[in-house]
Amino acid sequence: AQKVTQAQTEISVVEKEDVTLDCVYETRDTTYYLFWYKQPPSGELVFLIRRNSFDEQNEISGRYSWNFQKSTSSFNFTITASQVVDSAVYFCALSEAGSARQLTFGSGTQLTVLP
Amino acid sequence: DGGITQSPKYLFRKEGQNVTLSCEQNLNHDAMYWYRQDPGQGLRLIYYSQIVNDFQKGDIAEGYSVSREKKESFPLTVTSAQKNPTAFYLCASRMLAGGRSTDTQYFGPGTRLTVL
Q1: In Å, how far from its chain's centre is CA B107?
Q2: 3-class DSSP assignment, residue B102
Q3: Measured in whole angstroms, how far is the alpha carbon of residue B58 from the centre of its chain?
Q4: Contacts with A49 (C-beta within 8 Å, 6 or more apart), sequence order
Q5: Which among B42, B104, B110 is the nearest to A43, CB-wise?
Q6: What is the SS3 assignment for A30-90?
Q7: Residue B70: its pLDDT value, please?
Q8: Which of A80, B16, B23, B27 shows its CA 20 to 30 Å from the CA of B113?
Q9: Tell me, what DSSP letter sits at residue B85?
């Protein structure tokens, strides 16, 4: 069975600090997909990034970057120069390569960026 | 605008009543999903459907029912058999063919259900 662990329940940082959100996953499949979603106070889940298991290249998008390491089954998310608007709950999720592509979510990390 | 809509945003129910949550999408996505979120927890899958008139149970289907009569619509009924229905419910959809986007589920704004 697949599992996603986000060990950090809550993180608080001061604006402009860098912050890394950890995600560790378990799966028996060799082909799988990893995701990060952001949930602001309004509740809607906003898709941030998707990664295939066969693509270990790190990715940078503006202030966001992702570090995917199959050797440690981790898919960590870093926000550089954090801003108050980054305050939200962030979820890491995993889907295996079956047709249904069901998502298994971690329990989320509440990020609070203080002014 | 293309997207996923859920209604109502807030829903109050008395114990013993069935309620139906609406989910509509105009993205021409084939698959649709219902998730439940409890405070401080991740999302858990209730039901999903990959094609009209077909759907499968997820991890926590007991006390819920769905239908998929149209591609655009996937309503969820919370029945009186659901023992603890107070939660935030999120609907998602996904394209089944057409490149990178097929792996990604996109979510609606959610419905917050409270049982009084």
Answers
A1: 9
A2: helix
A3: 11
A4: A35, A36, A59, A61, A64, A66, A77
A5: B110
A6: CCEEEEEEEECCCCCCEEEEEEECCCCCCEEECCEEEEEEHHHCEEEEEECCCCHHHCEEE
A7: 97
A8: B27
A9: -
Buried/exposed code over B15-47 (b: 16+ C-beta within 10 A; e: otherwise)? eeeebebebbbeeebbbbbbbbbeeeebbbbbb
Question: Whose CA is closest to B30, among B13, B46, B8, B52?
Answer: B52
pLDDT of residue A40: 94
B48 → closest Cβ in A52, A93, A100: A100
What Å distances lie between residue A13 and A47, A112, B23, CA to CA?
Answer: 23, 6, 36
Provide, as residue numbers in chain A, all residues whose Cβ is less than 8 Å from the Cβ of B45.
102-103
> Mind listing the pLDDT tens digit of every residue in chain B (116 residues)?
669 999 999 999 888 899 999 999 999 999 999 999 998 888 999 999 999 999 999 999 999 999 999 999 999 999 988 888 999 999 999 987 665 556 789 999 999 999 98
